[in-house]
Batch of 3 targets.
Target 1
Amino acid sequence: MPYYIDSTLVDVLSQHALDRPKAKAFSFLGRDETETEARSFAELDQRARAIASRLSYEGLSGKLVLLLLTDSAAFIDALMGCFYAGVIPVPAVVPRANRPTATIEAIARDAGVVGVLTGRRELTYLKPALSEALPNAGWYCLEDVDGDPSAWPGRQISTHDLAFLQYTSGSTGAPKGVMVTHGNLMANEAAIQRAMGLSSETIFVSWLPLFHDMGLIGSVLQPLYLGVPCVLMPTVAFLQRPLRWLKAIDAYGGTISGAPNFAYDLCVDRIPPEQRAELDLSSWTVAFNGSEPVRAATIERFSEAFAVAGFKRKSFYPCYGMAETTLLAAGVEAAAEPEALSVDRAALGRGSARAAADDTEAVHLVSCGRAAGDAQIVIVDPDAHIRLPACTVGEIWISGDSVAAGYYQKPAASDAAFGARLASTADGPFLRTGDLGFLSAEGQLFITGRLKDVIIVRGHKHYPQDLEATAARSNRLLAAGRCAAFALDEAQGTIAIVQELTGEGWHHAVVDRVAGDVREAIARDHGLTVAHVALIKPGSLPRTSSGKVRRSTCRRMLEAGAFATWSQRSSAKATAAAAPEELRGLL
């Protein structure tokens, strides 16, 4: 398949509309699992031209516009309309009516948007809510933004032009606007195609949010790049009933679909054996997982649970990436069995990935494969900026055509993150990811955690996700993957665990017993004393839009007494003080 050298997605869609005008590009499913909308390549091209014609007439070309549209055909119409017009969209989650808008206000102010493109229903409550934050912005209702497709001026888009701002998930700090160029997009889409072995026979199925990089670039722009069909459903449809995701893969013969760890775990927990047996997942050959890190237990649980449906373990595709690398930075070999290493926990805490002598002292790490496309990945001492040898933990640095242009209107932060160079050779520039990991002797990338999240006790490093996994396994009334571990007092080395209860646990837990199980498990497996265990209401753990735990937010909320804990479950005041939905994230 062509890689569209020196082209943009505007060129790609225009060509698909000529070559396969009636072929279905996108299908949208409602909560009842029936198709509610669809777009052929010609229809999408015509709609994009009409929107671009109007946006150009309004003088918005080259300017930033906030994109507040739900996961629907309208979102893709608007995105491509912006690309055609040379408007720079800023996709963001759409707050529901009467919900906090602080995140949207912060993004809008940071980007300095001159307009907002939204739907008619959302306009009625968003415009009043955001009027103070956006006093001079123009508001454009997508249903009314309809120009003459033939009047589109055919603006020349360069690969160096800014395509959109992708706001970071903010798992360790305030979100920042990543400047993604059209060239970044094309380079990353080509890397995804090659790394995952995708072809003209590929069929996408996704429920991932369209405003987020994994949903937008991986599950909308990649099928558009390939010219293949994509079936989309609302995120909430999956969250309410995970079976819908797998039924859609079955019904449409989906070959590629994916999500973070929690989604696979949710399917195992909520889909009973009799329903699994009714599914046919044999077509699913690429089940990508871009969590940081991918959990070996998730791969094993899901593979075992859905083997009866024809799912193959080798379909799992662990990968690694972030907004700053457009999306994909590393991935495994397609159709290969996922590789895992059992490394010694104590040695890992000292920065060495040494094989564990026995399972009781082991941490199981999953390989994310090798650098994708033209990317170069090096492991670097974060303080000395020297390259580290194989099997030594350090910060992950990346260079290549997929690395974005920097953070919007933040030159100092951009230079610090995107302008790193090796001290010994001055090679670079590299992107400093803030992630920790190592390369095996064979060149495989393994993720160990986030630099800012590492807990240091008596000079020994502990990775919070290891503590979190141990805590969640300690009692069946604790929700898997819904935990945050962090240091309360770094000087004294005190540890806190914030852990969601299951629905059953929220009503029936003996809190002292469950908290005791957590403390005992952490002490036994990690040699640490937990100073505080907060057992919180289901669904209240702050997470980013991609499912990452906001550990710094958890620490602030715990110190402020803002969580609804088990002991406060009858208090309406405590429940109201729980994390607002924007902080929890959609996933």
Target 2
Amino acid sequence: MALVLCLILFGWLVKYFAYTEKEKNFYRHLETINRLELLCLDGSFFEYADGSEYTSRDHPNSFDLDLFGHASLFQYINRTTSKPAADMLADWLKAPAPFDEISSRQQAVIELKPKIEWRQKMITLGYDHPTGEKDPKDLLTWVFGRNYFLRSRYLKIITYSLSALGLLSTVLVILGAPAALLVPVLGINFLYYFSQAKNITRLQNQVGKTAEMLETYASTIEMIEGEAFNSPELTDLQSVFTADIPVSVRIKRLSKLVSRLDVRLNVMVAIPLNLFFFWDIHCCLALEKWKSRHAPEISLWFSAMAKFEVLSGFANMAFNNPGWVLPEVVPGYFTFRAENAGHPLIPAGRRISNTLEISQPGKTVLITGSNMSGKSTFLRTCGVNAILALAGAPVCADTFTISHVQVFSSMRISDSLEDNTSSFYAELKRLAAIIQTSEHNQKVFLLLDEILRGTNSNDRYTGSVALIKQLIGYGTVSVLATHDLKLADLAEELPGKIDNYHFDVKIDGEELYFDYKLTPGICTSMNASILMKKMGIRM
């Protein structure tokens, strides 16, 4: 009795120890999350995944606007812990949301913003299971693929019969029958198992080692199932998980089935289990049975879970930046009104905000200014905030209104040894894509920085004038930063179609002072000669 009591006490202590370890890890992860958020508030957000795998030079704007990679918008927003959510965040940044969905996302952000503990607990689940970031692509390939075990009508009968024969032979040997009796019986069992080995291995390769990932997904979905929501977007997403048996329970079941199949990776255990009980085959049968019941729904489950993660990231950004606003996205073409807009990735203490309004199609805003005065940063400020607005996220501005458009840019052009392409030809290809897009009456907002910089000054001016006139003819709106002051004279030739703005520089002897404020009119002061003198070039 003393031994039994000690064993019971030991079992309770083991269980309590596991609970304590889980609680300890939870609070450690929570401490990490808040430490990283405090760093983020100070402008250091570089410990989050940066989404560099989503970088594409051919995308209309992502390379120019630093949407992905180190110190990118993706890295600033990203609080996802699953691959489907990271993929969805990248997709939302790459393309505008449907017009009707933007306001729904904004309402969801408003509701999730004060749910700090709930949002952070969701992140801790991912921290508890780092393999939750594993790509479920192979798992989904299996879900939508063909069955290899359920289609065999006699598979269960054969395996149960051979198992019974193997166990019976073992009992007879124990009772005194010759041990040689086991040789033909186990040989038959081995040959039958071997006949199914190819299909078992195929299934294992697709679902193996996903148990921890599925456990994380199940825990995340369980959190969603247990929370009360009011906004239409969140209630619709939550309804995806409504069923007689909770979806979290169903995914936990799949996780357990995968864990059982992964037992085959332990050879010492797998050999007796399969020789006598055909363990792997029964696991595969159970997995395919689960698949046959839930295949049409699992993609919806993963997608709804991913949306909750991405919207939580938007809400986190809104909470961290209480001065930011949810923008107004309007259907007509064209409206752009940004009051005191700043670049979201520049810390508030160093951020300079500016105001710009464009209220008609076929308008070109020319921005002149000296080197380092802030022209390119302002273009990116307009572009990044437009991307956030069209994704349904808050923006860094006092007020922000934009038409439902596609943002297109030509700012950061480089050559390619791999494609045998010069930077000038690469820019021409980008401008050709811009012209083609504008020509087909697509609603676009163009951000152009020092176009045709790879040719001589005469050709650059002639080509720039031709491009501006062509874009105005299409009714396209563009903001163009340039050093070429002659382009500003187009305002007289095309009245009402060209707006001139500039960034000024104050010069005191050989010292330069920038205020980074956008001002109407044409720039009259340049600083290149002073900078060249500082670099040792004799003027």
Target 3
Amino acid sequence: MSKNVKFLITAVTILALGVFAAPGPAGQDNNAIDQYFNLQGLKKKPFSRADDLTFVRRLYLDLTGLLPSPDTVDAFLEDRSPDKRQVLIENVMNSEAHINRWTHFFDDLLMNQRVQPTAYYRNGQHEALRNMVAANMPWDQMAKTILTNNGVGWREGGSFFQFWAREAIGNQYRLDYLDDQVGLITETMLGISTDCISCHDGAHHLESINKDLANRKREEFWGMAAFLSKTYVHTRMPLANYPINSETYYKDLDISDIDHPDFNHNYGGFINPETRFKPAGEYMAQSDAGDGMRQPRSGGQIMPRYLFTGEEPQPGELRREALARILVADRQFARNMVNRVWAHFMGTGFVEPLGNWDLARLSPQKAAEADAEVQPREHLLMESLTTYFIESEFNFQSLFRVILNSRIYQADYASRASGSEDSGLAYWSTDRRVRRLEAESIIDTMYQILETPRKYTISGEYNSQVATTWELPGPSEPSNFFNDPDFDPLALGYASYEEFFLNQTETLRLLTIFGRSDRSVVSSRKNDTTAQTVLTMMNDPSLHHSLMSGGSSPYILRLVESAASGQSSPEDIVDNLYFRILFRAPTPLERGGALAYFKDKEVDLAIRDLAWTLFNHPNFTHK
């Protein structure tokens, strides 16, 4: 038996049987992720472990999008318990900040945004997602709730009407709405973009793009759309009773299945019903040129069949409930979420782009059959994590726990002490994993460090405020309500109209420039560094105002007063700024340069200049 075959059998056995547990005390290595990488040659060159300061910053940014408080950092550094990292992971996973950050994750994934005059649908979906995250609801239950949701519940903050209505409101043609909704479902919940085969067969079009979809036919796609064909967005009164596109009209919309026993057939107008038929709940693949945005359809009545297996609804089963049941049982459903979670924590997914899975290239064997290269990095580890996620009953915290406790997550990426270019493992352990902070984290952490907290008001929720950008429910927030005569910011505690306006508009501008998701498509977030982002950070008015003489930052003012009174030496000040802003000590070269600058400048100006320099350092804007 060859060495490679022996290795493969051993790897598969360990990954199949391995228990995904946290590393034990005193470095005991029983985490299956680490076992996997050790099998591939890293046993002799173990990952260099990140120091505590690096770890605590990374963990908080990944789980909350914020930095830990100085008191939290001090307590963690002083703790000598062998399991203190495991304890910290558990504490942060159960924090309100974590709930806010991961609600935002699902808001982005499901493209929750305001697409009509009222923000109530978007806010209701945001609230529903937050309740799910707070309860650590399993992913399969979340998906079933989303896929089968009835729109009337949005008034109690429990609806996913927005997930269904965004395509309905934007489409004038019924069949296009159904096709677009299928594309949204497959990309968000399976990681597969199926839009191409909604217009034509995959053959002779997709061979160089997606081997699996190249073998799929347009009629198979229609079978997916037929699961949704009895689902309608409608008003509760005749359309003639509403000023079309008014806020009253949109606030009165519902979503229902006409095959549901409780459906009220006396409901009023249907949004984008079939043009040739009364709303009857069937997918009639008959259209002419000019009907909608797609190529003409010809196929008659299409029955619901799951695109990837051909499975059909059971007798008496509602179609959307059948789709939800079949979809969450598809291994690709779990695989897609594992990939997205892994990408969040590790900097990139097993498969990239995240919504471009090719099912014909999942393993070397499948890829060979398709005469192509295997698509996922580390496909054995990916499949093992997928099995674990399924067997944990789709528990997010269990999945987070095994990744966060692994040595590869806790590695010192910049040390380059592990792996080699030849091994193919260097990516996971070197500074190639370093990436820029999300827009929200750059803004929130800057205000955290400066101790200049902001408060934001949200469209549709005038009487409440949020304190971080991770709590904003959509990319149009925070709003300045400039054209709303009924809104009074002074009643919410703002010192002036100017303070309110500047808080809202400056944060909205920064979020946009730094690439927050606009939620127009799945995965639209841009975390790249550009000339615009660099220049924006250098010239940001709120940062300058906080740092200038007499500025608003309590943190900077304390440093200036401490230096002026002789309580802190220039060395103390330099170390304090580096630890607070960059979460590390200055190098000898950096310390020497900073102290030389302090000798040439008044200490007040030197402190402000060094703080500005560090906020523009890559160690602040990256993780």
